[in-house]
């Protein structure tokens, strides 16, 4: 069912408020803090560090960027990500980040759907495919094996530790699954359902190149939608690649905007 434009704007505002401005840390070791005009995620060791939300203008942006570069440099972080959204201000924030030494990675499309709409779709698995929940390190190894083939060098190095920490510390906030062809993992994905956010984030969705185009990814989207519907989470959210976007649009996802990860590497 199509979401009206005014409703999409309201959903985007709620996403900004609940997922970005009021973000929660990925693990017990991490922290989320408001510093000046930004909300940042700080993680020791090899975990994810980044700027989740910002409230800047032409007068404050450059100084705030410099402050965050200095902060993560002093912590000895090897890298951090400034997750820029197309509606963030000032309008030239991306150019300012680039001038400060941050490098943009591939843009992704921020997409959303009503959970109940997706959960009602009947998307059957391809012949020979079964879905296995990831609940332990053995299942996590299967997930990482798929992601290594699907994403190659683009898989975040901290992903295994992040998912393992959530499975151990917040098992009700995450559901990870692997699509199996017999004993071979061919697609893996997860859904994160943070309490109070109203949004279930669909992440991963990596498919072995030999299995693309057969409907495995579609089935895992539908499967995760049903998991989120069982928790009464109203919306599904995806940062979609160019490959995933057409599939998601056919399933009923709507575009909220574009997000670009700007990376600083010390």
TrEMBL record:
Keywords for the protein's UniProt record, in alphabetical order: Transferase
Single GO term (MF): acyltransferase activity, transferring groups other than amino-acyl groups
Lineage: Bacteria, Bacillati, Actinomycetota, Actinomycetes, Kitasatosporales
Domain N-acetyltransferase: 129-266
Pfam families in alphabetical order: Acetyltransf_1
Superkingdom of the source species: Bacteria
SUPFAM superfamilies: Acyl-CoA N-acyltransferases (Nat) (SSF55729)
Organism: Streptomyces subrutilus
Keyword Transferase set for record: yes
Keyword presence, Nucleotide-binding: no
Protein name per UniProt: N-acetyltransferase
Gene3D superfamilies, per the entry: 3.40.630.30
